[in-house]
Design a protein that fits this description.
The chain is mainly α and 169 residues long. Helix content is 80%, strand content 0%. The protein is elongated and about 55 Å long. The structure holds fe (ii) ion (2 copies).
Length: 169
């Protein structure tokens, strides 16, 4: 089901489409993070990515709960945006030999993913209010808070834990 077909007629259809898009993205991120963890060197970065992998598995579960509360089956729809972010991350990291520069690149890619998730959850929360889907707002907010915290933690690892400084030296 593509966004430009006539399958999306109502605002509720659009809300469901965005949920399916995020379900695809969260599952994709769950599969992608172990590879990023394997490539990372900085201990704080590895620990942060591992912690967020566990949280991301929880995001998939929360989306499944949301589908259930809405009386829908969990389904994915292709998300070219997350595929593109991941493709770019792979291309860039494949070009980098220096481990410290690679850590900085991994942080940049991970933050692009977090920002994508933050914009999607932000929109879904706003739409859930408008559509009266009050029962799912708490679940969406819980995940949004974890995405925002993961993003802040990545900034701290880059700036306070020396990743950018080491990459620059
Ligand atoms: Fe997530
Ligand atoms: Fe995330």
């Amino acid at each position: 089901m593509g966004i430009f077909t006539k399958n999306i007629e109502t605002f509720d259809d659009l809300f469901l489409h965005q949920l399916q898009d995020l379900y695809y993205a969260e599952n994709k991120i769950t599969k992608k993070l172990p590879g990023m963890i394997a490539k990372a060197t900085n201990r704080d970065l590895v620990a942060g990515l591992k912690a967020h992998l566990e949280e991301t598995k929880g995001h998939v579960e929360r989306l499944e709960q949301i589908f259930k509360k809405l009386g829908k089956k969990p389904e994915s729809t292709d998300c070219p945006a997350i595929d593109g972010i991941i493709k770019e991350a792979d291309e860039v990291s494949g070009e980098i030999a220096d481990k410290e520069v690679l850590d900085a690149a991994i942080i940049a890619s991970a933050q692009a993913v977090e920002h994508y998730e933050i914009t999607k959850y932000g929109t879904l929360i706003s739409w859930a209010y408008s559509l009266g889907h009050d029962a799912v707002i708490g679940l969406l907010v819980a995940t949004l808070k974890e995405e925002e915290a993961a993003d802040k933690k990545l900034t701290a690892v880059a700036e306070d834990k020396g990743v950018n400084r080491k990459a620059a030296s």
